[in-house]
Amino acid sequence: MGQTIEADPSLVRPLQRTTWRFYVLCGVLTTIVGIGVAGYVTQLQTGLAVTGLNDKVSWGLYISNFVFFIGISHAGTLISAILRVSGAAWRRPITRMAESITVIAIVIAAAFPILDLGRPDRIINVFLYGRIESAIMWDFVSIFTYLTGSIIYLSLPMIPDAAILRAKYQLGRFRGFLYKLLAGRWTGSRLQQIGLKKAIGLMAIIIIPVAVSVHTVVSWIFGMTLRVGWHTAIYGPYFVVGAIFSGIATIIIAMAVFRRVYHLEKYLTVKHFRNLGVLLLVLDIAIIYFSLSDYLTAAYGSQTQDVRWLAALSTGPYAVLFWGMLIGGFIVPAVLLSLNRTRSVAGITIAAILVAVGMWVERFLIVVPTMAVPQVPFDWGVYQATWVEWAITAASIAAFALLYAIFSKIFPIVSMWEVAEETETISEAVAEAEEVTT
Amino acid sequence: MMSTRTVLAVCGLLAGALLLLPAQVDVAPGAQASHRGDILCPTGPPPTRDGVFALEEYAENFFDPQTKILISFHCLEDSNRTMHVGLISPWQGWTEMRFQATDEWDGSYNAVRLAMSGGEVQAVDGYVEGATTRFADDRAIGGTYDLIGATGALGSERNVYEFGFPLFSADAYDSQLTLNGSFYFQLAYATDEGPFMESEPHFIQIGQFISPGEPTSLELTLPPGGVALEVAEVIVTLRDERGQPLSLRPVSAFVQTTFGFLDLGVSTTSAQGVASFEYAPRDEGSYLVGAAFPGEDGHLASVSWFSLVVTSVGEGFSLLPRDLAIIQTLIVLVLGLVWGTYGYSLFIVRQAMRASQKEGGSRDEATPHE
After folding, report:
1. Are residues B114 and B223 in the same domain?
2. Same domain, yes or no, for B187 and B104?
3. Å from B208 to nearest chain A CA?
4. Are residues B121 and B193 in the same domain?
5. I need a labelling partner for B286 at 20 to 30 A (CA). Which of A30, A191, B47, B161 fits?
């Protein structure tokens, strides 16, 4: 990194050239976000009555989305931090994609608890009257800590790239300002390189337990509640594994999109897909194991409420979602990722899409059916999401894609200095080998 | 290798299938409450409908554990087959008795709604059709008001209602029971304008032989002034008609909360007919505490209510676990470590930048060459 780095023009090209397709995409995504904003304005004016939420099922799509987005934010932690700490060199082209997913996903996720409030202004009460005994308070602190850490962890490796872009490319005043701000006094000297690597290394180590704590705390919001289907010790690891699982799936989808759109086949190779595919398969098996353990324990105990809950899931109104999730979201991807024939880029991407959809359904099934089970001798809760909730859900996914697309137009989506460093390392190794041979 | 369109089509189909919304969940009927078998409706002289329960007025009753309403029955062998009903309800809004004279509970039912307003009882004779689940006053849909002498008494802890109605009515929207027929009934209540909370449907048979049921009484004793967070001992004494204690009988106790009743459990009475429960109210206020004996062969059910007034918060009590201070300290330390690491990482980078500046490096010089 530094003076000798040769930035690959193909990595800067997406920043220099923007086709009409990009603007169309942004237009479509902005429209969807706009519809979601209109839905939220309706909700603000009329109250939560415009949603399907009620006194029994008070958490619906909003909290399902919250858990889902917090889950995919773990992409950055696993792909970048764990692989960085473990010295896996193949991670280099995908670290920035992963880290940026983390930051964007947390920002989107953090909005959902506020959207779930009929009176969003009362979020201030968390600061005024927050109690340390409350899992909601733990959640707030851990998410804020994770977001801050993720922004730092994303920003530090962007310093050398920002310096390259500042010095060599004219990409407009706004981007020029950002590069200048980020690169600061970066010269690429040896001392700076040592300092930066040390800082990144420290952040990589600390961000892993923070990320694990975030999803553990999210799981505790459910697990600490004395409700059927929630009050189980398995929820901490179950949520963390599920989060990493959906995070990897999201990364694979992002890789497939950028590989095709930005022509990054040179950097995002079949090897990257296969390596991530193996990780996805391992986590798929783990999530199947956890699900089996969770449902089997409840079924074997056969307590009245457990039986009602399981019946609602397996043969009741949620059966299509439940079996769709197990088969379409867990088992089919496992098959696709296991067979050599389907372990292609397309096959792995299909598996990742199925996993992402399946994990969203899994979050929905954690939140809604459990709340619908009567805890007191009243009737079942009924939840039918309204257009407002669907519009906001669609808007959140569109906002995620929009922010990600914009990010890819401001910073190279593949870390230039890290892949250059890898090339240098390989060249040096080859030279050394040739020297020894000579 | 599949084409992109095929991939998108397959994913779209699967995603669509997975995202189907759940449908409404129906309560499964079929819970048959039993007072040593089916609930029977004995015959005899009619009770006095004065809003005051006399022990000997009703020969059969049933305590519903879900709504905490005690319902008493008494049938007459007159041409209308009049049934007299007595209700003790802890609910201040509407209390509703629903009944249906069909073989299975199908959701359509006759309904009697009762409430106390300004010291007077409000009684509505209505009908609900299963398909619409909409309540309608019988008179508004062409029927007649068939309730006989509905009375009520307002109590601080519970309301008492008494009324009669014909099991064999000329009104098409009322019950059409044959002699010795059977019917389902259900109890429900509404605390405000919200939906009615209802019990499971229960089953009744008319005119069957029943062993004489001796009335019972429950006495509920609570400390005069409770202290929040301190355990209040709820003492329940069960007696028979002659005032003799009934031992080895199950008695349940419960407390009304914002979200329904909190069951304190079931306890067996001692040789003195006494059972005790413990309850620690969290805050100041008035708590409606109830106890019930479900009845048995030879003894009728009984219920008793009492208000526990909690006036102050006890000293030395805390909602927090005793060792929470240690946990708090640990959390602060861990958070401090995390945020410290963030700060230290940024500090390292800042120092490295400044050190390079001192070394004389320049940004232009450091620019990578392409």
Report:
1. no
2. yes
3. 30
4. yes
5. B161
Distance CA A198, CA A191 (A): 11
Does residue B336 lie in a domain region? Answer: no
Residue B198, C-beta contacts closer than 8 angstroms, at least 6 positions apart: A378, A379, B66, B67, B98, B186, B187, B188
Domain of residue B63 covers: 39-206
For residue A261, how far is the Cα from the chain centroid? 21
Q: Are residues B168 and B244 in the same domain?
A: no
Q: CA nearest A8 in B: which residue?
A: B370
Which chain B residues contact residue A77 at CB under 8 A? Answer: none
Counting one residue from chain A and one from chain B, the pairs whose CB atoms sit within 8 A come to 188
Architecture of domain A9-422: Up-down Bundle (1.20)
Q: What is the pLDDT of residues A308-360, one digit of tens each?
A: 889 889 998 899 999 999 999 999 999 999 999 999 999 999 999 999 999 99
Determine the 3-state secondary structure of B315 from DSSP: coil
Give the domain ranges of chain A. 9-422
ipTM over 0.85: no
Residue A406 has phi, psi (to 5 degrees) of -65, -40
Q: What is the pLDDT of residue B321?
A: 54
Domain count, chain B: 2
Residue B37 burial (C-beta neighbours within 10 Å; 0-12, 13-18, 19+)? exposed
Please report which helix (H) or strand (E) contains residue A128, including its range.
helix A124-129
Question: 207-266 in B: which are within 8 Å (CB) of A?
Answer: 259-261
A191 and B356: CB-CB below 8 Å?
yes
Q: Considering the domain boundaries, does residue B330 fall inside one?
A: no
Pick the range with the lowest mean pLDDT from A80-84, A196-200, A314-318, B30-34. Answer: B30-34
User: Is there a contact between B18 and A145 if contact means CB atoms under 8 Å apart?
Assistant: no
pLDDT one-digit tens code per residue, A192-243: 889 999 999 999 999 999 998 888 888 888 888 888 888 888 889 999 999 9
- Closest to A186 in 3D by CA, of A177, A178, A196: A196
Q: What is the C-alpha separation between B175 and B287, in angstroms, rounded?
A: 38
Q: Which residues of B touch A157 (CB under 8 A)?
A: none
- The verdict on B131 and B192 lying in the same domain is yes
For residues B60 and B35, the answer to whether their CB atoms sit within 8 Å is yes
